[in-house]
What does this fold into?
Amino acid sequence: MQQTLGNKLNILLDNYLNIHSILVAAIMDKSGLIIASSITQEEEELTIAACSGALSNAANRIKRELSGEGGHLGAIVTTEQGQLIFTQAGKKAFLITLVRPGSDTDKILPWTYIVAEKIQQLIDYEVPNISLDLQLPQMKEKTDFFFKLVILGTESVGKTSILRRFIEKKFDEDYKSTIGVGIQKKTYTLSENISVILNIWDLSGQTMFKNIRKTYLEGADSAVIVYDVSRPQTFENISNWLEELKESAPLQHKFLIMLIGNKIDLERKVSFEKAAKLAKKLNLPYLETSAKTGDNVDKAFGALCYYLIKDSIK
It folds into this structure.
């Protein structure tokens, strides 16, 4: 008997729950309506009720913040029940994942991207014979992928703080502006045999360093443009950074640019809707972060790593 779309989605989520630390998985449309869901069988009734409450909160957030048509990649939100991971699954849906408190989301994020892609193939593209089994991409031999990543943005938007949070899991209230360039390396492990090694160039946002930045931008494979949600002028400068990037580093076909709105722990002066609208217009994936609290920092760079290599490992 031919399986319906609902059957396929539920089977996919059941397979997803076999991954360690995942409590609940659900697929919601942009209005917050649950299309499919699954919960681990060992959970007690009290936990199930709490998880249901978490999904209800997730639905409200989707309706309030994530329902636009921009390139928003989702978010990670800490709740009493655990960490709630929102992952965009095409144009019509979000994958919602609730993981146990204290779980290492770095190990779960690659799975969320794989499941979200399958959801997109089922809902948006109506692929009839898609495999519902899940496995991380594999290589016969250990393979390292190397990329040069440049971080751009107006002075004091938090570029260096985001990198420190990503690499060292630390944040400093007092820091000095980058002079010229800071170069760091980070290895992101996707699976047992696949690692992404990022050579990250943190470029000064000061105007006086514009000519120097041209040299540093050469040979880049990807870029992150950061603005401060509490300083509208840094948002207005996004177009200038894109222009500088295109002038200094002619973009290859697969060159990936990500837009990040940082400092969401401060009073917001740039609305989420306005930023998402711009991201859609520019066709850029978009995430909002807080280097201070760590919100979404790992998700931003995890998504970047996955999308950089996904075409190379299929």
